[in-house]
Amino acid sequence: MKKRLSRWMFLPALLLLLAGCGPAAHIEKDQAFNFSNYKTFAWVDQDGAGRNDRNKNNDIAETNIRAAVSKELTKAGWSETKRRPDILLSYDLLVERSTVQNNDPVYSQPFYRTFYSPYYRRYFIVNYPSQFIGYDRSERTIKEGTITVNMIDAASGKTVWQGWATDEVNNRNISSKEIEAAVRSIFKKADLAKR
């Protein structure tokens, strides 16, 4: 019994660790917006620029973002349609350079000193432990990728919901795994399944 119980004790710690590993997601929505009023969606270019849109520069990223968002919405019971959708979807992808400041604590080196005591007629070793001196501040340049998903009410043309996630990426183009993780965290924050 104890052996089985000890196996399950690590599960909450593992879940907390995994929950902190995804990109940070943020949500903004219209106060009147309710997910239960919408069931169909379609993809559009919000500005109508088509092939000149900066989102179109990377067709692979566009395909991956649309597939990841469609997957999350389909899991929540929505369906994609070309005829009279409830919601129009658009996205924005931005990869930019940013700097991160690191503040690493600095400690002095511990050392020992030897003293002779004439009273006891012997040597004593005194330990001086390391002490906090301050911080070593440094900066490094990183690439930060941000995916933003917009939901536009098809009837009114108003943006009713917006979600975005930002995370450090390895190169100029964001990978499919990074896209999936970002979109998953956005819709996890939106919590579509409960609505």
UniProtKB/TrEMBL annotation:
The keyword DNA damage does not apply. Residues 29-189 form the DUF4136 domain. PROSITE patterns: PROKAR_LIPOPROTEIN (PS51257). Keywords: Signal. Residues 1-24 form the signal peptide. InterPro entries: DUF4136 (IPR025411). Gene3D superfamilies: 3.30.160.670. This is DUF4136 domain-containing protein.
